Amino acid sequence: MIRHKLRIQLVTYLYQHVLLEKSIAAIIVDEELEPTSEDHVYLLNNLYNVLENEQEYVAFVKEHLNPEWKYERLLAIDRAILLCAISEFAIDEAARAIVINEAVEIAKVYSSEDSYAFINGILDRL
Fold it and tell me: What is the pTM for the complete model shown?
């Protein structure tokens, strides 16, 4: 699977986590992901990374939000896209510019009209 599709799949898993407050462990079990291929290793690495570091990643985003905004009020899909990108930054999966561009492109398709600019601005500041 190409990396773009894997990122969309990862955002889908994180969206379930954020919106439904479903644990990442439950998402992995529901999807029956096993580290049998490079694709699954990528997904599992990022999911476990978010599981271990979610509070830290949320704190990063909160630091860079407009003081009048609340993280919890952000669209769930935007939070999922941000978690996906920040996880990739941390794991050093791809070049920073590629990760930001992918997050922006995913936001253009799956989020609100202006979310891509917001996500670009937040990720550019991290």
Answer: 0.89
